[in-house]
Design a protein that fits this description.
The chain has 107 residues and is mainly alpha-helical. Helix content is 61%, strand content 9%. The chain has one domain.
Length: 107
């Protein structure tokens, strides 16, 4: 566990917030409830099954690593919305370029 920094860990609730922010940034009108992340992690473990999102346990509490969350997000986006995180990065880069062009034009 020492290889994972605690600031790289998410509770199920914070994971839902991060993912919902990504969905919003991509223009996807969908909100994933925190309960879904609980069911995919702790709920699966409580049933004796493998979690659908890999987890680590810190001080007896289930957490999702940054890397595992973003691997899951990428799979979710590809399967359910036919987009990827690269689309978000591309949109962000285009927005930045537009802002720079506007600033140059205004000056």
């Amino acid at each position: 566990m020492s290889a994972t920094r605690t600031d790289d860990l998410f509770t199920q609730y914070s994971a839902a917030s991060v993912v919902n922010g990504i969905l919003e940034d991509l223009g996807i009108d969908k909100v994933l409830p925190p309960q879904m992340f609980y069911n995919y992690t702790s709920g699966q473990i409580n049933k004796g099954k493998k979690p659908m999102i890999p987890v680590v346990t810190v001080d007896g509490k289930v957490r999702i690593t940054n890397d595992d969350l973003f691997v899951w997000v990428e799979k979710y986006l590809n399967k359910n919305h036919k987009v990827s995180l690269a689309d978000l990065a591309k949109d962000t880069e285009e927005d930045l370029e537009e802002n720079v062009e506007e600033e140059v034009t205004v000056s």
